[in-house]
Amino acid sequence: MSADRYLFTSESVSMGHPDKVADQISDAVLDHCLAADPMSRVACETLVTTDLAVVAGEVTTRADLSRATVDRIVRDAIREIGYTDPTIGFAADTCQVQCALHAQSLNISQGVDTGGAGDQGMMFGFACNETKTLMPLPIYLSHRLVENHATMRRRGDLKFVRPDAKSQVTVEYNQDGTPHRIHTIVLSTQHDKTVESTKDGKPYFTDAARQEIIDKLILPTLKAERPDLIKGNLVMVIPGTGKPALKNAEDILVHINPTGSFLEGGPHGDCGLTGRKIIVDTYGGRGRHGGGAFSGKDPTKVDRSAAYACRYIAKNVVAAGLADQCEVQVSYAIGYPDPLNIWVSTFGTAKHGLTDTKIARLVGELFNLTPKGIIEKLQLRRPIYRETARHGHFGRELPTFSWEKTDMAEALKNAASR
Q1: pTM as predicted
Q2: Going by DSSP bridges, is the β-strand pair 234-237/252-256 parallel, antiparallel, or unpaired?
Q3: What is the DSSP secondary structure assignment for residue 392, as one 8-state letter?
């Protein structure tokens, strides 16, 4: 690697990762409540482990949350993810489901009822022009790998993979911050016994299966997204053998199941909890994070809704051509409607003689950042959240992801020119 370049890495996890199973269950409960009662107040946490799912939290809603209904919601979510085989330690029809949901605190309700924020804290949003969706490249590619992993698993294109998987992408950047090439890929996937052999007396995921993942999943994903950043061949790293000798200095190193084998996984292999993948959920470490999780929370919780609003603002700033990258921070006091601050950083990339201070002022003028204003602008009382809990809350231009729209770019551009 040239001395004037640097590396940056982000990771993602699949819809079958234990923490993401928990996130999707929590958001399935939230969607159920919002579908029946858009004014529902929900703070739902889930734990999953061997043959067990525990749902707990505070909910105020007119929706049916009887024991039988919650049981059905949980099992349907697990089944849809793909955990249907009882022999692997966690399955929709055989796991135990425990429910401990109760009403929201009246002390919180009295502040939220008058339009105040559902919690204190700070929230961040980020956007940059590295990808068509204005997301940082490493997290964007990491998401696409696990998203395509899930698609191929469900279609039967990779018959041996199971739902649990993780991806990691390292990008080599030029000194000016532009991507130079894809440097390293890591992909770990749970698998069945058909692709397991024995090596040195230990279970071993076969190299033939590794190559199949490279040929069917990794290389096509990279070619579909950024073929210009594939500067060399994809070179498999064999576990336990160290770095291979590269014929081309710009070959891409690929680690697949680098421990050797990944037979035992999912909630049986690792306990999962709602809200434990907050960096995966946002910008892969590229943009800052306020610390609050998203899944299982209704939009009165600014941990979620204001983080979506900050992404919306940052994306529109970049889409308007006001900066090459933008980070936005807001903060709130519980029960108080207006943000305590609006902060913007463009990391020195602001255009047209603009300053970060002026862009922050424009944001304050053009965006209503009260909880009520955010909810109405982004239409956040809809049952749209379960899809957010896998493959990233940001960077997917789906019809329901209103915070990914760039409909305020023209207004920002016009205001900046005044």
Answers
A1: 0.95
A2: parallel
A3: -
Q: Write down the pLDDT at residue 116.
A: 74
Q: Helix 302-319 and helix 356-366: axis angle, to 10°?
A: 120
Measured between alpha carbons, how far is 88 from 348 in angstroms, rounded to an integer?
51
The pLDDT score that the predictor gives to residue 111 is 55
- How far is the C-alpha of 221 from the C-alpha of 143, rounded, in Å? 10
Strand partners, 44: 57
What is the tens place of the pLDDT at every residue in 171-217?
A: 999 999 999 999 999 999 999 999 999 998 999 999 999 999 999 99
Q: Using CA atoms, how far apart are residues 272 and 275, in angstroms rounded to an integer?
A: 9
Give the per-residue pLDDT at 243.
83
CB-based contacts of 329: which residues, under 8 Å, 6+ apart?
122, 123, 124, 288, 290, 310, 341, 342, 343, 344
The tokens for 342 are 């609006």
Report which of 37, 80, 140 is spatially closest to residue 387, judged by C-alpha positions. Answer: 80
The predicted pLDDT at position 105 comes to 65
Q: What is the DSSP string of 325-379?
A: EEEEEEEE-BT--S-SEEEEE-TT---TT--HHHHHHHHHHH---SHHHHHHHHT
- Residue 180: which region, alpha, beta or left (left: phi > 0; alpha: psi -120 to 50)? alpha
Residue with tokens 């269950």: 25
Element containing residue 12 per DSSP (H, E): strand 6-13
- Taking the chain, what is the end-to-end CA distance rounded to the nearest angstrom? 45
Q: Give the residue from 145, 140, 129 showing the smallest Cα distance to 256.
A: 145
